[in-house]
Write a structure and sequence with these properties.
Layout lengths: L2 H7 L1 H10 L2 E7 L1 H4 L8 E7 L9 H11 L3 E5 L8 H7 L1 E2 L1
Parallel strand pairs: 2-3
Antiparallel strand pairs: 1-2, 1-4
Helix pairs in contact: 2-4
Length: about 100
């Protein structure tokens, strides 16, 4: 089972955790989105937050998702994207 398959299988739980932390949308990018991930790959998530975020965002979100998925999680918001990588990330990002 691929990492993306695991994400799809646990989608409802992932989105529930995300919403508790104020995330309004979540997209996967990087090796997982491209289908090039390995057992050691982290999961790169591009998130959009609403006006009210958890006081534990992003650390609490990362911790809960790592426990749920058993993988290291990297979180980035669109304004936080490296300008040199922005177009690539936005092109390959897949909605969860």
């Amino acid at each position: 089972m691929t990492t993306f398959d695991i994400l799809k299988e646990k989608r409802e739980n992932v989105l529930e955790v995300a919403h508790r932390h104020g995330v309004t949308s979540m997209r996967v990018f990087g090796s997982v989105a491209r289908g090039e991930d390995s057992a050691e790959s982290d999961i790169d998530l591009l998130v959009t937050t609403g006006p009210h975020v958890s006081p534990w965002f992003p650390a609490g979100l990362i911790l809960e998702l790592e426990q749920l998925l058993g993988r290291h999680i990297d979180i980035v918001t669109e304004p936080g994207l490296n300008p040199l990588l922005r177009d690539q990330v936005l092109t390959e990002a897949v909605a969860l």
